[in-house]
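Extended Data, panel c. Modelled sequence:
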Amino acid sequence: MGTSDKGNDFIKIEVEKLIEWNEPNGEGCIVSDKITKEGFKVGYMYREQPVGENPDSGWRFMAGNEDDEYMANPGNHHIFAINTICNYDRDIIPYLHSATGSTYIRVDGHRFEIDDGEKPIFIDKQNR
């Protein structure tokens, strides 16, 4: 399936309540379709200042193999509740309460480290 085939073709998962999210700005996050439609794990994540009046946590999640053209297309990203993305990739849970400005990359099958720009992103597929 190509990246131009957009619709409700998200990978079907059973969503369990994995986290409590009580931060004041809400639990929305922006997620690359490479995670929710193509089955990659989160490889790169950062937290920016939440957007205005939207229920936005500030978290942005990518697989790490998106190129500039892919990222420039807003149709390749969707808004989800953070708990839903935890169900796609539980490895992100320990990092979720990091401060605004935090940036992490996956360094192996289950761990993230602060992105210092020196290490490559470990790209991995979800086990489904």
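The longest helix spans residues 82-88. This feature is highlighted in the accompanying rendering.
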